[in-house]
Amino acid sequence: MFELLGITPQALFSQLLVGLINGSFYAILSLGLAVIFGMLNIINFSHGAQYMIGAFIAWIGLTQVGQWIGDPQFKLSYWVVLIVAPLLVGALGILTERTMLSRLYKLDHLYGLLLTFGLALIFEGLFRYWYGVSGQPYEIPEVLQGGINLGFMFLPKYRAWVVVASLVVCVATWYVIERTKLGSYLRAGTENPKLVQAFGINLPLMITLTYGFGVALAAFAGVLAAPIFSVSPLMGADLIIVVFAVVVIGGMGSILGSIVTGLGLGLIEGLTKVFYPEGSAVVVFVIMVIVLLVRPAGLFGREK
Amino acid sequence: MNGTRAGFIILIVAGLAAPLLGIYPTFLMKCWCFALFACAFNLLLGYTGLLSFGHAAFLGAAGYITGHTVKVMGFPPELGILTGTAFAAALGYLFGSLAIRRQGIYFAMITLALAQMLYFVWVQLDFTGGEDGLQGVPRSMLFGVIDLANNTNLYYMVFALFLAGFFLIYRVIHSPFGQVLKSIRENEPRAISLGYDVDRYKLLAFVLSAGLAGLAGATKTIVFQLASLTDAHWHMSGQVVLMTLLGGLGTVFGPVVGAFVIIGLQNQLADKVGSWVQVIMGVIFVVCVLAFRRGIVGEIQALFRRP
């Protein structure tokens, strides 16, 4: 069947895999945006920059830290960084939330967007100044090098790992928010912050931690992305705009919705690369337009 | 409204006299183009309360269309500018009717995504010249008599176009239509309950703003003889937000002041600090949002408006 269309199954499956990987990143990032939006009512424009910083921490850990401390043999391995980068970026996020974002909650939501846009410019500009715009290569950790021949396609181990790891993180996040006590506080805080506070729950602390967690997710995605895309200061900016479109399509009301929409759109993008490569850059936006025409509130949205 | 009248007089006198003072005319023309762009943006954010994060789409699109019609199809400049502006307005109608289907933060994300989509379209189309841009747009005779190759002539054409756009915006803001826009900004449900078809007003404001942003882009193409991807990139959309915010959101003269300050700063800083420019722009953004939300003109107004 595939041969009839002039496309080999190998090409089809490998593009689908690429799509699935992009979809995993869309899923993690839009999940982070949705969690942050739920609690803080702001759109975190610096999400892409925080993803980029995550990738840079991975790269710095592997290639730069040794030189900084004068021991070229010293390296922070991929696995260490996978924990450290989200912690560092999360801490940075908490600092930002406490010193800046928290001053804006009483104002129009648009100011939060503008502030985080400014922060994104600062982060991106700093890394451009330090490391230039050209991408830095990042080596795949040894355990995950190579691949498995599945018969119908060749599956690189690292790519499989990225999909699995993102799915696990997404599902874990969903579980915590929808099925645990902590998550129920969070959902209640989203619905009616004043009442939750009246019950004696420390809401400001929860808001701060939520923002920290959301941006930590972005950094985690950044570390996962480091060996696949080259690490560059611009890697987050273009991605985040696509993620915005994903969020518009899915609506931010539902956690599971964000995950499903992200993965689905990644797959569709991969398919477009096979059948109509010229359209692959815009397909997500085109779908956004269609969704706006047919179902303005988004697939999982419940506006107003 | 004595302050406004004084502002108008200062603006016109300064605009007419500036090239005589020996300020580099290309720099001034760039400032007027961006001032118009920011004023058009302000009509939407400052007076209607709609944050479009994709306004570069209109600036860039009009630039490409004007550049192409003038360079390849041999249009005279006035017709080229008109075509570019009309195209931007039509584009505004399209984007606007999609974006107003959602509110607030979603509106911003939709406009940003639509602008990015158009950006990719420009990247792939051949006539735009990709990364190099559409170069060598000729400066021919305006109305067949005024030679635009002369910088002074060109300057006064740019300034006249700016004034025309600026005055149109001023009239719109102070018309009954403008009052309805403000009421939408202040309290949309109430405007609806008073019987206004809010979506139509929003859409018209969007089309106006897009068209005027297009006028700025078309003029800019004639001035620089170039239409490029930079003008269509989301960085540009961010810049116009910054100009408006710094100058004073929802003030008549704020965007003009903001545009001059930002373009002036970039001009001064570009050769001194290189890639720090972006960091500095980011810092100005953050400071404006945190501590300077009224902007330069807004603060001056507050100073004079003592109780």
Mean pLDDT of chain A: 88
User: What is the number of domains of chain A?
Assistant: 1
Gyration radius of chain B (Cα, Å) is 19 Å
Q: Would you report the number of β strands of chain A?
A: 2
Poorly predicted residue ranges of chain A:
none
Residue share in helices of chain B? over 70%
Give, in spatial order, the strands making up the sheet with the most strands of chain B: 1-4
The total strand number of chain B stands at 4
Can you characterise this structure?
The complex is a heterodimer of chains A (304) and B (307). Chain A has helices at residues 9-40, 47-63, 65-68, 78-99, 109-131, 157-179, 181-191, 193-198, 203-225, 235-250, 255-275, 283-294, and strands at 147-149, 154-156. With 304 residues, chain A is mostly helical. Chain A has one domain (23-241). In chain A, strands 1-2 form a two-stranded antiparallel sheet. The termini of chain A are far apart. In chain B, a hairpin with a 3-residue loop joins β2 and β3. Helix content of chain B is 74%, strand content 3%. Chain B has a domain at 25-233. The chains are: A mainly alpha (304), B mainly alpha (307). Chains A and B meet through α5, α10 and α12 of A and α5, α10 and α12 of B.
